[in-house]
């Protein structure tokens, strides 16, 4: 890659790194996995930069990130769990609820496709058509996944809110 192309790529990647890292973190729930997804996307875009720079590098990188998240989820869902679950799960605190930790935790309980649809729609503010193109599904699938995901989130958050109602606010 020439120095001019390399400079363009570095400027492009620097401008997008933080927002994609946040999206990937919402998708995976894990900082290191999110960083890996974004790094993989940057490497794949860099390999094709001379062609992509005039077309749609954002769309290509976004697709790499979301497809990578789905692939990781599939791979890890087949592996046996190695970690032992704690005997008692701590109830969420008012501070957690106010900081959005409950929303991030509830997002992790959705399927990867539902999580991807919600992050693309409400965090990245993408249209149904853009989401469908990114995830390579129909617009109807985007609508049904969003509907199911929002219903599940409402249920999860209502349960968590009920557990907070008994907690004393400091």
Automatic annotation (TrEMBL):
InterPro entries: RNA_pol_sigma-70-like (IPR039425), RNA_pol_sigma-70_dom (IPR014284), RNA_pol_sigma-E_actinobac (IPR014325), RNA_pol_sigma70_r2 (IPR007627), RNA_pol_sigma70_r4_t2 (IPR013249), RNA_pol_sigma_r2 (IPR013325), RNA_pol_sigma_r3/r4-like (IPR013324), WH-like_DNA-bd_sf (IPR036388). Keywords: Coiled coil, DNA-binding, Sigma factor, Transcription, Transcription regulation. It comes from the Bacteria. Residues 143-170 form a coiled coil. Residues 103-153 form the RNA polymerase sigma factor 70 region 4 type domain. Residues 21-78 form the RNA polymerase sigma-70 region domain. Pfam families: Sigma70_r2, Sigma70_r4_2. Belongs to the sigma-70 factor family. ECF subfamily. NCBIfam families: SigE-fam_strep (TIGR02983), sigma70-ECF (TIGR02937). This is SigE family RNA polymerase sigma factor.
